[in-house]
Design a protein that fits this description.
The structure is a homodimer of 83-residue chains. Helices cover 51% and strands 0% of the residues of chain A. The first copy, chain A, is mostly helical and 83 residues long.
Chain lengths: 83, 83
């Protein structure tokens, strides 16, 4: 499982749309706070690996492509732990 | 904008995975409660129109294909209004 504390240092590119608290900064961006880490991890990997297409994939795929499996687990743990 | 009260009568196929309160019943299913109606509407239309692929699209596309624009707006309003 990911390390939420480590994740807090890895959300530099996430916060522009999802904030530090996981609340989408515009109505088109989903809230991430309180989602299960399993879901967030699965989504980020699907974006990174270009498996998830359409929707916001054009935005998310480039964001995710620099992330290792560990980065993704940490970021997922971080946002999942936000209320 | 959608009608949350009308939406409550249209979530028959949603509740198996997302519950009546929008909380995913398994870790792989996202929570919908409190997401913006704009995001939920956009996502459902992208699934319905086979624009959104990968991720959970294999599950979601058939669910969404029976829905009109009005149904989608109502369902989005309903889940957005859940806490």
């Amino acid at each position: 499982a990911g390390d939420a504390e480590a994740g807090a240092d890895k959300i530099g590119t996430c916060v522009a749309c999802h904030g530090t608290d996981g609340k989408g900064l515009a109505p088109i961006y989903p809230n991430l706070n309180g989602q299960s880490a399993t879901y967030l991890e699965s989504s980020l990997k699907a974006y990174r690996d270009s498996q998830r297409q359409g929707g916001n994939a054009m935005l998310m795929t480039p964001m995710a492509q620099g992330l290792s499996d560990e980065d993704i687990a940490d970021i997922a743990a971080y946002y999942s732990s936000q209320e």
